[in-house]
Write a structure and sequence with these properties.
The complex is a heterodimer of chains A (about 120) and B (about 110). By secondary structure, chain A is an all-beta fold. Chain A has strands at about 5, 10, 20-25, 35-40, 45-50, 55-60, 70-75, 80-85, 90-100, 110-115. Chain B has strands spanning about 10, 20-25, 35-40, 45-50, 65-70, 70-75, 85-95, 100, 105-110. Classes of the chains: A mainly beta (about 120), B mainly beta (about 110).
Chain lengths: ~120, ~110
């Protein structure tokens, strides 16, 4: 069974760093792209970027380029989304999803940034 | 790139059919047969309902169908059921080699 399991909710202060994870199982992790999607409270879905764990080829939406870093560790079938300096406006639910088609989704990680 | 345009809301009675539109440009919807549709219930992760314009993943009801004409893609739900009440998002591949989502449509089953 294909599963994407994300790390738990986080509460952070502005300026802090954060790295959230997405662990894949039940399929060949290195053979599918993994993407990240943001959903701000009460708002729609926004595509952030995508990584191919097989060779770490990474692409970003222009809206998120330079704001976040996407990485992956294929030895443990895990993709990451990280911030070096969080802002209150980063408060959102973040989802990982498999493939360009996004056929399987993680359960989401709620990130709250508040002073 | 700009988000694809979807109606904010649609509604229908049980048993009826509804259609949700998703309008883009020749640089996204019109230029590629890579349109997907996702269903999201409150507090849940999105679920893939249609991919590559009109293909249904295994396990998705055949009441859901997709199509495309020019720069507009459509999701049709026939035989509307209470459980179909959710938010629906379209997504398309773009000429920037990245995908873009629509703004989302809230479906209400009356």
């Amino acid at each position: 069974e294909v599963q994407l399991v994300q790390s738990g909710a986080e509460v952070k202060k502005p300026g802090e760093s954060l790295k959230i994870s997405c662990k894949g199982s039940g399929y060949s992790f290195t053979s599918y792209w993994i993407g990240w999607v943001r959903q701000m409270p009460g708002k729609g879905l926004e595509w952030m970027g995508i990584i191919y764990p097989g060779d770490s080829d990474t692409r970003y939406s222009p809206s998120f380029q330079g704001q976040v870093t996407i990485s992956a560790d294929k030895s443990i079938s895990t993709a990451y989304l990280q911030w070096s300096s969080l802002k209150a406006s980063d408060t959102a639910m973040y989802y990982c999803a498999r493939g360009v088609v996004k056929d399987y989704w993680g359960q989401g990680t709620l990130v709250t940034v508040s002073s | 790139q700009s988000a694809l345009t979807q109606p904010a809301s649609v509604s229908g009675s049980p048993g009826q059919s509804i259609t949700i539109s998703c309008t883009g440009t020749s640089s996204d919807v019109g230029g590629y047969n890579y349109v997907s549709w996702y269903q999201q219930h409150p507090g849940k992760a999105p679920k893939l309902m249609i991919y590559d314009v009109s293909n249904r993943p295994s396990g998705v009801s055949n009441r859901f169908s997709g199509s495309k004409s020019g720069n507009t893609a459509s999701l049709t739900i026939s035989g509307l059921q209470a459980e179909d009440e959710a938010d629906y998002y379209c997504s398309s591949y773009t000429s920037s080699s990245t995908p873009v989502f629509g703004g989302g449509t809230k479906l209400t089953v009356l």
